[in-house]
């Protein structure tokens, strides 16, 4: 056969042979690619009905086009002998791959999710495999699952090896199996109860077999087996599998639940679809990632574990099982503890330790795939080739200025920043620092120098129909040369296919440079729901505008994201941030809004306690409630979880400022400034720190810096105006207040600031006019009572000032947090009512 | 279905010069007319009632007909007049007002923003209960012009100018 050309396939070599026939490596002479050619066994080749059924089934199977299914290219005949032409794969089957070792938990999850994905794709098209088993599941050298021989069991192809579907297999063959030991037992062990009973089958039979496979991959043992086929059938129909965690105590309880549900004997009680299994596995991966990061589990857990029946030295005895279901040994402890570093299983010689399993970017959706890939590639280059340790990711250019994807320009950039910020070896500039480059025609190297980074990532984004074309370029700032560049085309509806293929290549490279935990962090997804993720990005896009209009829209989008994925912790954190912004913008009394900040942040933390963003938001809420110790605890926790999250440093710095702990505040705000060097908000916070510390010149300098960063940022002008007031320059102060008022289209806070400036400039009549306006406005919209109070203080109207301060207290005004340090209250500081107020907010 | 039918009527809602559309209404170059669908069971509003409608305090024309507010985007003269005379608010206040209203669940949403008088006319014709503002000399065909305090645009005492 070798060297022979059949149809347009030239046979190159034999790949394997067995009961399923012979498989050859061949060259497709038309398309110039290598393929695998599989001939039907002689026993079936002579049966015309079998051949016709085989051809019908093969045609259906050939319609499957999925990255986790071995593609059937062609069915043809060599004379009377039918053969299949399939995708040629390099790697090994699950059976061979895990013959001697058990996979680390993370790798197991990765593989199981891919298997579930492949099964789901086939089941969706009405194709049932009927012979899911480790020997039919291939793992490529890139860690990609390929399920083989889909649907062929139905027609008896390879029956002597796989036996397939009893209802369609010759009775004699089944009868023979029932009494014969040997090779057929291996196949019978993966049958579902309904298959063993010869009943009509549906997709759920594959899910039972998949449960068998998962159990065996994890434990090295089949859940149901006996010394003969008949005993195995009995075990499948009536036996109970040994608890999975008794054999693998290091895996989470949730794994046991998932596998047990797949192995339910009643198909009504079992998972009803592969998609359900996949969803549970993905959720488990997400949750276990979070747990692992929080608990700082050692890398040893990610190494393969010696298979129990190999008897390798160092294998924990608790994981050994005997050869039969009725004779299994279990650990003495009924509540096995996870392995400690000292009890970590040994790695068999000849098997290189793996870092984390090939984490796949299983997040559905073009954008996540692209950004995860970009993050990984970036990390690879930055840590390996350039020696660079600092990066700025500029907003992606929306090439066609398509407003419908404007949010993605920012969203891609911000998500990559968030991903990479988690790598301690890399200093990544915050999104707020790079946002100012949005839509600008710029020189990346110049931007990099401005941002004091060694490398800059630029990107472009175009939507064409339902596809996104994304290009990215990594520039070395020192010589303005490209370090790396890539282009991707992603169809939103078909993203998984491409991202899985590419991510496999990249993650293999990364294992050389990133620790398992770092890689895990990079590929960690907060949601697997594409729609939810896109809605979240839109929420962030509007939140970043930090305007009244933006805040409302951001809340809408975060809430929609939550509707799509009720377990999307980051969306709750976003919602908390949006409410927090409402407090800052004085849209409503803090007393009304802060409970919502707190509720959203708390919900986020219930779902994911490792979320720095949510701890920061909760710290903010507690700060606003004058829960001083609670707030500090949350800020510290947020920083310990992610020291690169600049808002945590910024808000903690503001908190410390309010308490008069100026040196500590300086340290936190400086750190925020390092992480977000071009953020006017951080500069304003630094300006206020100096202002409250009575360093007027420094305050003015910082606020000027903020205004220079973003001239349209009204709070910078308010900050600068207050610094000028402190310096004794009221005219300059009023100029700044008027600028702010103009920029904000008449914002009440800015109007009030002007009133304060006029009062301190001895323009009392004008100040009183503004006071009247503020009181009139208060009939329709919220007016921050503390603004009215400080104007009255400036006018020497103490009683009225305290009336408004009291109202401020009732509204839980954020301003009261600064009562202890604010120079504007120096005139009433000795008043007993002021001392009482300090006491009420916990600042005495 | 009702909406679909109404949208299909867009072509009949072409914006035409005031004199052709409503020849018996005096010309009023600077006045802003308030237009609604003809099936809105209101012909005249007091200014106070108009404010209640625009502030979202009155949300139904009738028990089964909800008010839908259409307001031009910032920069349009119609918006400036509406904010100044009806809302008596600055731009920032107007935004703040609606955010607070929605936050407190006193309204399901703020006014819908429209970017041209043509769109305002189309949507008013298509959405039952919609109310919009257009230049008095640009009143679309097929829409009803509301009187305010008994006055039509161009008449003495008409407040929106």
Q: What does the secondary structure layout of this molecule look like, with pairings?
A:
The complex is a heterodimer of chains A (844) and B (161).
Chain A: E1 5-6, E2 9-18, E3 21-28, E4 33-39, H1 42-45, H2 48-62, E5 72-78, E6 81-87, E7 91-93, H3 94-97, E8 101-102, H4 105-124, E9 137-140, E10 145-147, H5 159-162, H6 171-179, H7 183-188, H8 193-196, H9 203-219, H10 229-238, H11 244-247, H12 253-262, H13 274-295, E11 305-306, H14 366-384, E12 390-393, E13 397-398, H15 406-420, E14 427-428, H16 431-434, H17 444-450, E15 455-464, E16 467-476, E17 481-491, H18 495-510, H19 516-522, H20 530-545, H21 548-564, H22 569-584, H23 590-607, H24 612-624, H25 628-641, H26 646-658, H27 662-675, H28 680-692, H29 696-709, H30 714-727, H31 730-743, H32 748-760, H33 764-777, H34 785-794, H35 798-810, H36 832-840
Chain B: H1 2-8, H2 18-21, E1 32-36, E2 44-45, H3 47-54, E3 60-62, E4 65-66, E5 68-72, H4 77-87, H5 91-103, E6 112-114, H6 117-126, E7 130-135, E8 144-145, E9 147-148
Helix pairs in contact in B: 1-6
Explain what you see:
- The complex is a heterodimer of chains A (844) and B (161).
- Chain A has 844 residues and is α+β, with helices and mostly antiparallel strands.
- Chain A has 36 helices and 17 strands.
- In chain A, a hairpin with a 2-residue loop joins strand 15 and strand 16.
- In chain A, helix 12 packs antiparallel against helix 13 (274-295), helix 26 (646-658) runs parallel beside helix 28 and helix 28 (680-692) packs parallel to helix 30.
- Mean pLDDT of chain A is 77; it is low at 155-186, 290-303, 309-365, 383-388 and 493-512.
- A 5-stranded mixed sheet of chain B has the order 6-5-7-1-8.
- Chain B starts with a helix and ends in a 13-residue tail after the last strand.
- In chain B, helix 1 packs antiparallel against helix 6.
């Amino acid at each position: 056969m070798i060297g022979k050309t059949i149809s347009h396939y030239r046979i190159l070599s034999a790949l394997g042979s067995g009961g399923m026939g012979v498989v050859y490596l061949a060259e497709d002479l038309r398309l110039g690619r290598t393929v695998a050619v599989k001939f039907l066994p002689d026993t079936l080749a002579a049966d015309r009905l079998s051949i016709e059924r085989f051809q019908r089934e093969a045609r259906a199977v050939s319609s499957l086009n999925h990255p986790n299914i071995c593609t059937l290219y062609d069915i043809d005949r060599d004379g009377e002998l039918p053969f299949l032409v399939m995708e040629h794969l390099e790697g090994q089957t699950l059976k061979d791959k895990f013959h001697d070792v058990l996979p680390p938990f993370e790798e197991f999850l990765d593989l199981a999710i891919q298997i579930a994905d492949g099964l789901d794709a086939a089941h969706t098209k009405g194709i049932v495999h009927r012979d899911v088993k480790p020997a039919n599941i291939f793992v490529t050298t890139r860690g990609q699952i390929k399920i083989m021989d889909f649907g062929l069991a139905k027609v008896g192809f390879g029956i002597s090896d796989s036996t397939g579907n009893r209802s369609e297999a010759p009775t004699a063959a089944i009868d023979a199996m029932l009494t014969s030991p040997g090779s057929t037992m291996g196949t019978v062990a993966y049958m579902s109860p309904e298959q063993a009973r010869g009943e009509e089958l549906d997709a759920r039979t594959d899910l039972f077999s998949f449960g068998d496979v998962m159990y065996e991959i994890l434990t090295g043992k089949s859940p149901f087996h006996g010394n003969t086929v008949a005993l195995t059938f009995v075990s499948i129909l009536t036996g109970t599998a040994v608890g999975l965690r008794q054999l693998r105590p290091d895996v989470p309880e949730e794994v046991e639940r998932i596998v047990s549900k797949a192995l339910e004997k009643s198909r009504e009680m079992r998972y009803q679809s592969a998609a359900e299994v996949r969803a549970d596995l993905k959720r488990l991966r997400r949750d276990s990632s979070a747990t692992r990061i929080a608990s700082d589990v050692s890398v040893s857990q990610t190494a393969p574990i010696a298979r129990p029946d190999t008897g390798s030295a160092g294998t924990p005895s608790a994981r050994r099982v005997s050869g039969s279901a009725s004779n299994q040994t279990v650990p003495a402890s009924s509540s096995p503890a996870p392995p400690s570093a000292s009890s970590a299983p040994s790695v068999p010689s000849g098997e290189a330790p793996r870092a984390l399993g090939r984490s796949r970017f299983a997040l559905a959706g073009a954008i996540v795939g692209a950004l995860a890939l970009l993050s990984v590639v970036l990390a690879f280059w930055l840590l390996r080739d350039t020696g660079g340790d600092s990066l700025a990711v500029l907003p992606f250019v929306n090439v066609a200025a398509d407003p419908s994807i404007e949010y993605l320009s920012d969203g891609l950039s911000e998500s990559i920043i968030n991903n990479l910020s988690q790598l301690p070896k890399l200093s990544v500039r915050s999104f707020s620092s790079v946002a100012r480059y949005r839509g600008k025609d710029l020189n990346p190297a110049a931007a990099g120098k401005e941002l004091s980074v060694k490398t800059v990532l630029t990107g472009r984004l175009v939507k064409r129909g339902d596809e996104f074309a994304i290009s990215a370029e990594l520039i070395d700032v020192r010589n303005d040369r490209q370090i790396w560049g890539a282009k991707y085309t992603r169809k939103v509806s078909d993203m998984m296919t491409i991202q899985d293929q590419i991510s496999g290549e990249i993650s293999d490279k990364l294992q050389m440079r990133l620790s398992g935990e770092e890689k895990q962090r990079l590929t960690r997804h907060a949601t697997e729901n594409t729609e939810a993720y896109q809605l979240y990005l839109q929420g962030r896009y509007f939140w970043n505008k930090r305007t009244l209009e933006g805040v409302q829209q951001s809340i809408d989008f975060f809430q929609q994201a939550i509707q799509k994925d009720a377990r999307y912790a980051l969306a709750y954190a976003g919602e908390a941030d949006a409410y927090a912004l409402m407090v800052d913008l004085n849209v409503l009394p803090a007393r009304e809004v802060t409970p919502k900040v707190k509720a959203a942040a708390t919900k986020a933390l219930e779902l994911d306690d490792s979320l720095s963003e949510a701890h920061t938001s909760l710290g903010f809420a507690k700060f606003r409630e004058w829960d001083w110790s609670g707030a500090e605890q949350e800020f510290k926790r947020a920083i310990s979880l992610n020291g690169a999250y600049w808002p945590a440093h910024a808000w903690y710095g503001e908190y410390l400022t309010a308490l008069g702990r100026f040196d500590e505040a300086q340290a936190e705000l400086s750190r925020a400034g390092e992480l977000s060097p071009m953020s006017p908000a951080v500069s304003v916070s630094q300006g206020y720190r100096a202002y409250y510390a009575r360093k007027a010149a420094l305050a003015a300098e910082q606020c000027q810096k903020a205004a220079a960063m973003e001239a349209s940022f009204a709070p910078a002008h308010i900050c600068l105006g207050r610094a000028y007031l402190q310096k004794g320059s009221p005219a300059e102060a009023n100029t700044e207040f008027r600028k702010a008022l103009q920029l904000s289209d008449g914002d009440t806070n800015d109007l009030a600031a002007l009133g304060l400036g006029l009062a301190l400039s001895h323009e009392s009549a004008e100040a009183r006019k503004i006071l009247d306006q503020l009181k009139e406005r208060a009939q329709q919209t919220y007016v921050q009572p503390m603004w009215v109070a400080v104007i009255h203080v400036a006018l020497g109207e103490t009683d009225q000032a305290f009336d408004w301060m009291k109202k401020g207290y009732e509204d839980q005004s954020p301003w009261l947090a600064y009562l202890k340090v604010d120079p504007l209250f120096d005139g009433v500081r000795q008043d007993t009512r002021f001392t009482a107020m300090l006491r009420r907010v916990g600042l005495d | 279905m009702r909406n679909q039918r109404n949208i299909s009527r867009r072509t009949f809602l072409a914006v035409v010069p005031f004199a052709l559309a409503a020849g018996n209404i005096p010309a009023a170059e600077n006045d802003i007319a308030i237009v609604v669908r003809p099936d809105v069971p209101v012909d005249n509003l007091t200014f106070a009632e108009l404010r209640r409608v625009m502030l979202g305090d009155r949300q139904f024309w009738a028990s089964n007909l909800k008010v839908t507010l259409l307001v031009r985007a910032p920069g349009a003269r119609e918006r400036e007049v509406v904010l100044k005379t009806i809302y008596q608010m600055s731009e920032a206040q107007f935004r703040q007002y609606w955010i607070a209203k929605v936050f407190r669940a006193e309204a399901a949403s703020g006014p819908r923003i429209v970017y041209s008088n043509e769109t305002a006319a189309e949507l008013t014709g298509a959405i039952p209960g919609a109310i919009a503002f257009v230049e008095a000399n640009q009143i679309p065909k097929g829409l009803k012009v509301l009187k305010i305090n008994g006055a039509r645009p161009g008449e003495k005492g008409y407040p929106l100018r």
